[in-house]
Amino acid sequence: MTNEFLYNWQNELSDGTSERISSSIQSLVKSGYSLERAKDLIISSGESLEEVNEVFSSWEESLKTAQVVSEGGFPMSYDDVKDDVEKLVRDMSSDDFVDLIACSGRKTMVRVSHRKEDDLRALVRIVKARLNDEFVMEELHGILRPHVEAAIHDSRGLSKDSDISITEGEGDSFIADDDGRSYILHLSSRTCTCPRFVFGGFAHLGIPCEHIIVARRSLTPEIDHEEGVDYKLVHAQFQGSERFAWCGRHEKEVKISTACISGECPYLVEDCGSCVHCGFLG
């Protein structure tokens, strides 16, 4: 990803500006900063806004391509399924949509009370009547986002914490044995018969359950590190004896000893001293 397009920038900004900016990007991203935050920091350091934007536009295009390849199609955040949500709203009746994703009588992805369910049905009806109104669509996204992202993160967490064994089934199927219960899954279609997957509406949004993640990992164990399914590596910045790092969850720099360790962050996978393995991939 890096060598080819960084070389191409060299021809556009021949005074070494592109190399300096790209080097700064790589350093900040490796330290755990988001691309947007890295951009702000580089601009604040005095680099030309026009030149920074030129370099970042190439980075963003390359990262989009790399992300599709590296994540293997698994949604990593709500933004990855946002278009699918809007398509479901357009294609389904308002009642069918709510029954799929937020019915209070079943273990759906969005857990709501009966009153909240009625409110959601009313909102979905308004959205369907005003499909070009971005304001009401964003209101729906705002309600669904935390629930969907929790489901995505829960799948990754359960895939690590649960004692799940995978064996081959008939044809292209696999059997997941999870605490005495067995479920049939197909990696080709990324489907599973477990309650979370079936009743959560996961198939409609392409969200894997923990059994799909474990099965895929058992066949291709390198995805733990190469596809980012489990965690990301966040490098620590030392200030004296204290360590600091950029936290995507809180969107600010945090003290590792306070935010991650004593704060018992649920996304802390491992503290390696010079870096932490962080399970928050949003």
Task: Provide keyphrases for this structure.
282 residues; alpha+beta; 3 domains; four-stranded antiparallel β-sheet; three-stranded antiparallel β-sheet; globular
Cα shape: globular
- Ends apart, CA distance between termini: 22 Å
Residue fraction in strands: 15-25%
Largest sheet: 4 strands, antiparallel
In helices, the fraction of residues equals 40-55%
Following the backbone from N to C, one meets helices and strands in this order, namely HHHHHHHHEEEEHHHHEEEEHEE
How many distinct folded domains?
3
By oligomeric state, this entry counts as single chain
Give the helix/strand class: alpha+beta
Counting H and I runs of at least 4 residues, what is the number of helices? Answer: 13
Residue ranges: pLDDT <50 for 5 or more in a row? 1-14, 62-72, 221-229
Instruction: Give the overall average pLDDT.
Output: 76
What value does the Rg take, in angstroms? Answer: 22 Å
Q: Numbering strands along the chain, what is their spatial order in the largest sheet?
A: 1-2-3-4
Q: How many β-strand stretches? A: 10
What does this structure look like?
With 282 residues, the protein is α+β, with helices and mostly antiparallel strands. The protein folds into three domains: 2-70; 78-224, no CATH class; 232-278, no CATH class. It is built from 13 helices and ten strands. The strands form three sheets. Strands 1-2-3-4 form a four-stranded antiparallel β-sheet, with helices on one face. Strands 5-10-9 form a three-stranded antiparallel β-sheet, with no helix packed on it. The longest helix is centred in the middle third of the chain and has 28 residues, at 134-161. Residues 1-14, 62-72 and 221-229 have low confidence and may be disordered.
